[in-house]
Amino acid sequence: MRLIQTHLRFLSVVFFVSLGLLFSTHLPAAALPINDGSVILRMCKGADKVKALSVMCHSYLNGYIEGAHHFSKGKVAFCLESGDKEKVPGALVAWIGTNQEALKQPAGAVLQQALTASFPCKGKK
After folding, report:
1. Cα 5-18-29 angle, rounded to 5 deg
2. pTM of this structure
3. Which member of 5, 29, 50, 74 has the greatest number of CB atoms within 10 A?
4. Low-confidence residues of the chain, pLDDT below 70?
5. DSSP per position, 59-107
6. Helices (H) and strands (E) in the chain — how many of each?
């Protein structure tokens, strides 16, 4: 009897997990929230004071930077030298401060523009 109860619980868990996966894979892309410049600004503005924000900001930036370099196919728009990763949050906050329209733009576009302006590759303008 106990084996049957355990088996039924297992099957119900599998059923509900499968059901959740089924419905989550059919969400249209527009239904997924997209971060904008204001989200990035809030994360990175407090990065030097709040440990959790620092982790969030640096993780977000590192993910973007690695993705941008991976998918750039050798045509990167920005170049970070040794020690620059620690400067990125401050540079980003400063750039958004002078480009207020970036607050409503998608985060990826904001990061691309800010990093290109703040960390240009040598030999490029």
Report:
1. 160
2. 0.69
3. 50
4. 1-33, 123-125
5. HHHHHHHHHHHHHSTT--S----TT-TTTHHHHHHHHHHH-GGGGGSBH
6. 5, 0
